[in-house]
From TrEMBL, chains A, B:
The keyword DNA-binding applies. GO terms for biological process: negative regulation of DNA-templated transcription. Keywords: DNA-binding, Transcription, Transcription regulation. It comes from the Bacteria. One of its GO terms (molecular function) is DNA-binding transcription factor activity. This is GntR family transcriptional regulator. Residues 11-78 form the HTH gntR-type domain. Pfam families: GntR, UTRA.
Length: 255, 255
């Protein structure tokens, strides 16, 4: 906590423990190492199990620890910077992503009400729902649902199969025919739906960073993307140089 | 969950309860209303208290519910879109924020190690640490620490008081003399330090969206900002039109 520790407001017990634990992680453990069990840890630091558990949860929230099914609690690697947008980035999905996103599937689906309102589709009207996943350093880090109204891809052939990866690529290809006027993004905290959780190797309800992107063309919203990023392992970057190189949780740098 | 419910992977019990509760919130409760106690709710939905609690935690994570000290659990208003950057935004802190940020204080402080590395300052070297808070709709939504090395503001008068709001404004004013070449941002999940928590009316450890911004001038990092936004009430927006108008948690729109 740098020089501010003495000036700071009084902190709860688990918070102090968290700081101590965090230092122990730095000095005694290496990335991937499994932590001793809760009983041993609580005994070592002279705290109640409940206090220990709060501190561990906090460290998990900050990306320092990972709880993995069948493995236990391990020391997490530093978060991965995942570029969401550069300043110059005004591109359709799939246009210049390189290999970051994998196009998985497309199927006709009724979008959630809030998405339908933004897209201006009628209640119950189906749109193309393209599913993509994003891989970083060999691991899935995000799952995306991209909603494309039929009116945005009028030339899309009805002869092709209505779903599948080839269909998904066709939807993206047709979308790129439109002129892209602009895009908006929003980032908020959410939690993993069961299907996303499975894909991203998390438990349902795990904290996620949800990035909602609206793509404009000819004064209207031509498509809308809802992408769910693992909050434990990802740092979303925006800007010129592809990310701010800061490691570990915010409490280690924010005072 | 729209039309995907049948295709989706099996969901845990509390997840289903969460969906049911979410619908009840829409139809039976209004914003700010206090929820019945846990025992009554568990009885009404025929679930164990532990299951209920998991579902409530989930809804809190998604911004649908708020737990307020001395009040209980209330129905949260929709998240507020807080503009973090527009496409054209290349500005120094305080340059064109309008009334969004309030400059609170500045004092000499040793930055955290990771920040010092980015700023290129020596270990133990003090920098100007400017503290600002951001208010939206009358409520504090973010707390920021801006680190400015002495070398970025060489003309800053040493005659002025070394700390206080006037000093903070002087640091920002001197910083604006530099040409701004670019800025990078990163967003990640973090948790509230005790001092931020108090300022933002949250408990220490509450989930926060941490926005780290690096400001470049003459090929170097001239300043670095670490801003902590309330994750329960804020949706951070980036882009052209000041935000994507989507209400409520991601699960209501993301399938």
């Amino acid at each position: 906590m740098g020089t501010t520790q003495v000036e700071a407001a009084p902190e709860p017990k688990y918070w102090h423990l968290k700081t101590v634990l965090s230092e122990a992680l730095d000095s005694e453990f290496s990335v991937g190492e499994i932590l001793p069990n809760e009983r041993d840890l609580a005994a070592r630091f002279g705290v109640a199990r409940a206090t220990l558990r709060q501190a561990l949860e906090q460290l998990e929230l900050e990306g320092r620890l990972q709880r993995r099914r069948g493995v236990g609690t391990t020391v997490a690697p530093p978060r991965v910077g995942v570029a969401v947008a550069s300043s110059a980035d005004q591109e359709w999905p799939g246009e210049a992503d390189g290999d970051a996103w994998q196009t998985v599937d497309s199927e006709p689906a009724v979008p959630p009400t809030a998405v339908a309102q933004v897209l201006g589709t009628a209640p119950g009207e189906r749109v193309h729902r393209v599913r993509r996943t994003r891989v970083s350093q060999g691991r899935p880090v995000a799952a995306e649902l991209l909603y494309v109204p039929a009116s945005s891809v009028p030339e899309l052939s009805a002869i092709d199969a209505p779903s599948g990866p080839a269909r998904a690529r066709a939807v993206l290809r047709e979308l790129r025919r439109l002129g892209l006027e602009g895009q908006d993004r929003a980032v908020e905290l959410g939690s993993a739906r069961a299907d996303d959780a499975k894909e991203l190797d998390r438990l349902p309800g795990a904290p996620m960073l949800v990035v909602t992107t609206r793509f404009y063309s000819e004064g209207e919203t031509a498509a809308m993307s809802v992408a769910t990023y693992r909050a434990d392992t990802c740092r979303l970057t925006f800007g010129d140089s592809g990310g701010v190189e800061i490691h570990h949780g915010p409490d280690r740098r924010a005072s």
